[in-house]
Amino acid sequence: MTETAPTGPGAAGATAEVAAMLARCGLPAGPYELAYLAPEYPYLKAGIDMLYAVDAAKDADPALRFRAGVPGTR
Hints:
Elements: H1 11-24, H2 31-37, H3 41-52, H4 55-58
């Protein structure tokens, strides 16, 4: 038996994008899971886009260079 979940107008684009992202990560998702995640995706994406839109953050050094150790021991 195949599951199908109803989708609202305009949800197809978000559903397809969420399904593609999950597939790239190797995470299987059924139609009901996608129907639950897809409506939230535009809000999450907007929030993440706002984090990157901060002018001061564009030139900041990311915290990817953390070195654990005692300062001044080099």
